[in-house]
């Protein structure tokens, strides 16, 4: 393999992904980079002047990466006439404020529509025909959605995207201001399970492409469990010309897979054209579905916001868990697929989108405290590249939950990145909601074996009402554990069946230096460990209830280091 210097020369200088033991990490300027990201409102990145007022607030909120849209209509308002002047100002402004960007390519598709395509595309339905859907009463309706079965459409989109990527390479490859690109946004068809246009009707009557059938059958055992659950018969199908309904049985399932094949091929062409010009990471995001509404975390919000249980209620053809294998095959230029995660069970979706060691990136999620505390699970247990609360720019830093969470994550990023790359099975993230927010999706405790001990994480002890919490535990080796966060407590139990006692040998509050260096602050014992029973990472303002003695201390640095130990006694030791 060669020495480290030999290996380093094999990597590009621009932002890129490097494989780790169980995932990948983003490298920027030769170093691993943890995105503390947020997604802007859709129109924010269209104006450099507007963004000049956004950057200082985002820096104050400890955000280091912003996701924002670049639309096809913005850079190619007239066919073959490209204008990157405003985008250049935006990128240079971000660079001036030491802010990284993830650009969202709003080309042919944005939220299952084509509203960000240029006017010359929208009006030319002969060259760029639309998707048609059937409504109640067999009424056909035309959507403002370019049909994915149209080769001329993807060629025009791919041409524009390639121009964008070539320009970014020339402007930014030496700086790495732009880290990644999202190709399109939440693709699919809404209002019906498939396109009913003439070109789509003809394609639906044709057999499933042989290469698609062969690939999905060959890789069936390694495919997403959601694909296997929905199509248990698929591997046993005979070879030959198979219709979509023969392959996928249920009519709506067949129509959804038909659309997934069309959209993924379309986006695969666009992504490949861009990747050929500039090799930074590319991904596609997903408007999630649900099979069972009980997995949703709604808290009284209408079920419809959860995505939908039927293709067409959610965008039919998007990269949902049961279609992602088809997407990965048809769009290999995409480095990963990413879930927009608002109301689904957070951990379930993290598991779905780390299948086969795919890197996890959450491009959209809730920006409130309930949503933001969940990012600890993504970073700690699923090695997330980043998590991105949506509408981040309309929250003042002093009012945003992001500020506190990202501040602590930023100070400990070197430790987290090291564990993600080298000891991913030796770390865990978790969260606890406020007691009056607890739902069926909430956990009372998180249990995982790290090193030689089983770790149990629960809410931190108080005499009054227990509060919310979030954090991470990282095993550093030899029974030494790094604890980051607040509002939780940790208990250790030896995994050695001969052990007769497990306890805390040392525990220290840690001060965090500028570069993440840790020094000992206070030596913690007594009340802070409940006399050795467990270690408490308290909230900033513990609830003492009616108890008159202030036993639980407020959190201060929110970082501690504990060493656990166990003993194995012989009979004569009793």
Automatic annotation (TrEMBL):
Q: Provide the residue span(s) of the region labelled Disordered.
A: 1-20
DUF5597 domain location: 402-535
Q: InterPro entries from the entry?
A: DUF5597, GH, Glyco_hydro_42_N, Glycoside_Hdrlase_35
Residues spanning the membrane: none
| Residues annotated as signal peptide | none
Span of domain Glycoside hydrolase family 42 N-terminal: 55-207
Q: Does the keyword Transmembrane helix apply?
A: no
What molecular function does GO assign, one term?
A: beta-galactosidase activity
Q: Which GO terms describe its cellular component?
A: beta-galactosidase complex
Q: Which GO terms describe its biological process?
A: carbohydrate metabolic process
Positions in coiled-coil regions:
none
Among Pfam families, the record links this protein to: DUF5597 (PF18120), Glyco_hydro_42 (PF02449)
Keyword terms? Glycosidase, Hydrolase
Query: Is this entry keyworded Membrane?
Result: no
The UniProt similarity line reads:
Belongs to the glycosyl hydrolase 35 family.
Task: Write down what this protein is called.
Answer: Glycoside hydrolase family 35 protein
């Amino acid at each position: 393999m060669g020495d480290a210097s030999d290996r380093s020369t094999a990597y590009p200088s621009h932002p890129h992904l490097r494989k780790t033991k169980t995932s990948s990490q983003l490298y920027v300027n030769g170093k691993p980079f943890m995105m503390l990201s947020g997604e802007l409102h859709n129109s924010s990145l269209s104006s450099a002047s507007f963004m000049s007022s956004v950057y200082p607030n985002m820096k104050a909120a400890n955000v280091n990466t912003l996701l924002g849209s670049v639309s096809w209509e913005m850079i190619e308002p007239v066919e073959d006439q490209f204008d990157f002047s405003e985008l250049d100002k935006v990128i240079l402004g971000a660079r001036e404020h030491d802010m990284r960007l993830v650009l969202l390519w709003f080309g042919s598709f944005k939220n299952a529509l084509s509203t960000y395509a240029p006017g010359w595309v929208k009006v030319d339905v002969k060259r760029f025909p639309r998707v048609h859907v059937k409504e109640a009463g067999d009424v056909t309706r035309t959507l403002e959605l370019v049909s994915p079965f149209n080769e001329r459409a993807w060629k025009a989109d791919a041409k524009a995207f390639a121009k964008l990527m070539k320009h970014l390479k020339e402007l930014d490859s030496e700086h790495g201001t732009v880290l990644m690109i999202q190709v399109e946004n939440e693709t699919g068809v809404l209002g019906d399970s498939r396109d009913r246009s003439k070109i789509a009707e003809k394609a639906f009557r044709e057999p499933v492409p042989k290469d698609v059938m062969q690939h999905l059958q060959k890789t069936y055992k390694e495919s997403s469990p959601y694909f296997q659950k929905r199509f248990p018969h698929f591997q046993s199908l005979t070879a030959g010309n198979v219709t979509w309904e023969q392959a996928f049985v249920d009519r709506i399932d067949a129509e959804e897979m038909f659309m997934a094949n069309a959209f993924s091929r379309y986006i695969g062409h666009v992504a490949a054209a861009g990747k050929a010009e500039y090799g930074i990471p590319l991904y596609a995001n997903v408007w999630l579905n649900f099979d069972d509404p009980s997995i949703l975390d709604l808290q009284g919000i209408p079920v419809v916001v959860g995505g939908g249980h039927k293709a067409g209620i959610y965008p039919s053809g998007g990269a949902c868990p049961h279609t992602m294998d088809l997407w990965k095959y048809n769009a290999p230029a995409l480095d990963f697929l990413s879930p927009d995660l608002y109301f689904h069970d957070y951990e379930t979706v993290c598991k779905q989108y780390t299948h086969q060691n795919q890197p996890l990136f959450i491009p959209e999620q809730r920006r409130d405290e309930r949503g933001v505390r969940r990012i600890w699970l993504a970073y700690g247990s699923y090695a997330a590249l980043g998590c991105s609360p949506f509408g981040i720019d309309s929250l003042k830093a002093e009012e945003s939950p992001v500020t506190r969470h990202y501040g602590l994550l930023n100070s400990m990023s070197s430790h987290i990145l090291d564990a993600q790359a080298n000891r991913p099975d030796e770390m865990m993230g978790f969260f606890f909601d406020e007691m009056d927010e607890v739902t069926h999706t909430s956990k009372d405790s998180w249990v995982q074996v790290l090193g030689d001990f089983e770790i149990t994480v629960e809410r931190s002890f108080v005499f009054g009402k227990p509060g919310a919490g979030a954090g991470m535990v990282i095993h550093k080796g030899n029974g030494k554990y790094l604890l980051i966060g607040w509002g939780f407590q940790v208990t250790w139990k030896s995994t050695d069946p001969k052990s007769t006692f497990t306890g805390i040998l040392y525990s220290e509050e840690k001060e965090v230096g500028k570069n993440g260096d840790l020094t000992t602050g206070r030596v913690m014992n007594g009340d802070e460990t409940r006399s050795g029973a467990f270690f408490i990472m308290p909230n900033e303002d513990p609830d003492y209830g009616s108890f008159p003695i202030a036993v639980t201390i407020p959190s201060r640095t929110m970082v501690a280091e504990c060493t656990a130990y166990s003993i194995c006694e012989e009979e004569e030791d009793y």
